[in-house]
Specification:
By secondary structure, this protein is α/β, with parallel strands linked by helices. Strands 3-2-1-4-5-6 form a six-stranded parallel beta sheet, sandwiched between helices. Helix 5 links the parallel strand 4 and strand 5. Helix 1 packs parallel to helix 7. The longest helix has 17 residues. The chain is globular, with a radius of gyration of 15 Å.
């Protein structure tokens, strides 16, 4: 199954100021999420960013917040975005059957979110190189578990090029420049 821009929404999970820096590879997460946000903006794909307990973990990383459409950040108390009514209602309201998920921590909030939306009937794509955990082993275990559960584990470039679908378009030229 391929990702389709017209059927997708993007969900970035908990990439926050006090949590991001302690991940195993925070720069990869920031870069990957930034590329996904830029791609979503260029292709008119709806975006949601979750924030887990922002009073303690801080807001979304500034570099990502700058790329986020207004009113796209939703605070949550559940580990799973799929269990958070405001986020679930928001994604349901997009009326898109695919959700592309990235963020932190891979083995907690990302995993529970991805499995939750899969159980709710969504086609879920987890962007492995735009996710991290404090320990690399937790990230690896999370990706393996999600794949075994029937979720698609993908990369940033897979997402962007599947969303683009073809070359020789202005969108392709814009996004391919970002990847280089």
């Amino acid at each position: 199954m391929l990702m389709d821009a017209a059927a997708s929404s993007l969900l970035i999970v908990d990439v926050q100021q006090n949590l991001g820096p302690v991940m195993a590879d925070p720069r990869a997460v920031y870069r990957g999420c930034s590329l996904l946000l830029r791609g979503a903006a260029r292709l008119d794909i709806p975006v949601t960013l979750s924030e887990q307990y922002p009073k303690g973990l801080g807001p979304t990383m500034g570099e990502l917040l700058e790329l986020t459409p207004p009113d796209s950040v939703v605070e949550k108390i559940h580990f799973s975005c799929a269990a958070e009514p405001a986020i679930k209602d928001r994604l349901d309201g997009f009326n898109r059957k695919q959700v592309v998920v990235a963020g932190i921590e891979a083995h907690v909030c990302v995993l529970q979110t991805a499995i939750g939306f899969h159980q709710a009937g969504y086609q879920v794509f987890v962007v492995a190189d735009a996710c991290s955990s404090r320990l690399a082993a937790n990230h690896q275990a999370a990706m393996a578990r999600m794949a075994a559960a029937g979720l698609s584990v993908v990369t940033v470039e897979m997402v962007l090029f599947e969303w683009l679908h073809r070359a020789a378009t202005p969108e392709f030229k814009d996004l391919s420049r970002l990847i280089k």
